[in-house]
Design a protein that fits this description.
Number of helices: 3
Number of strands: 0
Order of helices and strands: HHH
Shape: elongated
Helix content: 55-70%
Radius of gyration: 19 Å
Largest sheet: none
Distance between the termini: 64 Å
Mean pLDDT: 75
């Protein structure tokens, strides 16, 4: 579990410089952590389990939303396309 958490942190840091596909890797790691939590439900305190499931679900949703988000500026909105007067 600690190894997956470390990998998730490294992947999160890589999203600042890498392609959008890295967000999908983060989503897959979130699913893996959630699956491990669900399989070990009986050995985890209820409060810890609930907090972990909520945080992992939020991480999963944000990773998928970030991967699908387009950051490119459209040609019409590009600040280099200002009207030229003169």
């Amino acid at each position: 579990m600690v190894v997956l958490a470390i990998i998730l942190v490294v992947v999160s840091l890589a999203t600042f410089v890498g392609p959008a596909a890295i967000f999908y890797v983060s989503a897959v790691l979130s699913l893996a952590i959630e699956a491990i939590e669900l399989l070990n439900y009986s050995s985890i305190a209820l409060g810890d389990f609930c907090v972990t499931v909520i945080l992992v679900t939020l991480s999963l949703g944000m990773s998928v939303a970030a991967a699908r988000h387009r950051t490119a500026v459209s040609e019409e909105a590009n600040p280099m396309n200002l009207p030229v007067f003169g």
